[in-house]
Amino acid sequence: MNIKEAEQHVGYLLFEVSRLFRRRYEEQSKSFGLTLQQTRVIGYLSHHPDGLSQATLAHAIDSDPMTISGILDRLEKRSLVKRVQDPSDSRAKLVTSTPEGNELFTHARSVSRALFDQVLGNLEEGHEEILMGSLRSIRDQLIEMSPENKEPHK
After folding, report:
1. What backbone phi and psi angles, to 5 degrees, belong to 40?
2. In the structure, how many helices (H) and strands (E) does the chain have?
3. Cross-strand partners of 95
4. How is residue 150 annotated by DSSP?
5. How confident is the model over 8-46, as pLDDT tens digits?
6. Cβ–Cβ < 8 Å for 64, 52
7. What is the pTM (predicted TM-score) of this model?
8. What DSSP string runs through 92-127?
């Protein structure tokens, strides 16, 4: 399959758009020193002020616990997250975002939104809504297909 043929497949285009967005975001986020993964971690934590375990966080952002551990180490050194004792389990720690982390996430989110606004601004009127609806439909179908949502055979 050549590149022209590949470009006719939605999977290829979804992957390319995602890859290019990540690359452009990483270029623009250098000014405040967060990778996309670090931004995702802080963003997820900002929506869970009581904290999350590393395992829950890893699952939530589709990563593995070892990768999350390294990301959290770097964020903790910058005082953007902190690990606190889990009040319900003395052996476990919860990860929370600090006020500095939340502030930096707000800035990172504005960079991301500006990038999307710039890219989506070239779409014809009404096409963004069609795109969003189509992507939601694809996402929902993929979620429905996941093993967690399958009923066991009897």
Report:
1. -60, -40
2. 7, 2
3. 52, 83
4. S
5. 788 888 999 999 999 999 898 888 888 889 999 999 999
6. no
7. 0.79
8. EEEEEE-HHHHHHHHHHHHHHHHHHHHHHTTSPTTH
